[in-house]
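Just wondering, does anyone understand what follows?

——
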Amino acid sequence: MRVLRIGAAIAAAGALTLGLAACGSDSGGGGDTAAYSSVVDKVKGAKKVVVGTKWDQPSLGLKTGAEPEGFDVEVAKYVIKELAGGADVEIEWKESASSNREAFLANGTVDIIFATYSITDSRKEKVTFGGPYIVAHQDVMVRGDDTSITKPEDLKGKRICQAAGSNSYKRITDPPPDGELDLDAELVGAANYSECVQKLGGNNLDAVTTDDLILAGFAKQAGGNFKILGQPFTDEKYGVGLKKGDTKTCEAVNAAITKMYQDGTAQQLFQKWFAGAQGLKAPTGAPQFEPCA
């Protein structure tokens, strides 16, 4: 058994190196190809990195111009610069929807992900998570004129959105440990949360339920068309996604997040993107990190 475990570890390390080489290769005029065994090594050596974020979530990761913008995007820029020891790094942004985050890390499409990526036990089997860098809480958003839903339990029998790749709906429909409320609700599918919000506005849904930070961005964008109940019922730890086994980068990410809170940057970014949002409280210190594994 011991030999098998050692063999598996060697294979995993080899796979990690190959994955980073695929997205970290530099085939310029000289034809040189550089392979790195971790993302932090690639950032320091190549001064390039491919970062996955959401492109459809206001205040977190929204792309309307040349590159996305939002809280997650600015956290990514801060962390990457810290990984590089303060040097400038060329960042290539890749849209990373909830449905493809694990695949993108595994196949080397991206090096690292900052995309409202809640740390869960099932995801930790496939991904190494740095952080969390902030803790969100699941809440419910309804149309501004809806008086029939005033608490999460009122979602029984209602139409709620099931965004592809997201586990949020399970907190409503399933019992613990994977779920929370165990309610009978009608699921309406959508590709992402921006489509969920469109369906809510078009009266094709009764509610969108997911992390309060995500909902706050959409509510702010829509003016008074939607309202958030302000009754959070879960903790959602937003982690930094890495290829499984890249613990070296994980530790470096955690050091960067610690500094981000110590120097006040995290609080400043929160105020920049969520000031005035319904029911949100600015973080006062770095969350407790998950073990790098």
Observations:
- The chain has a mean pLDDT of 89.
- The longest strand covers residues 127-136.
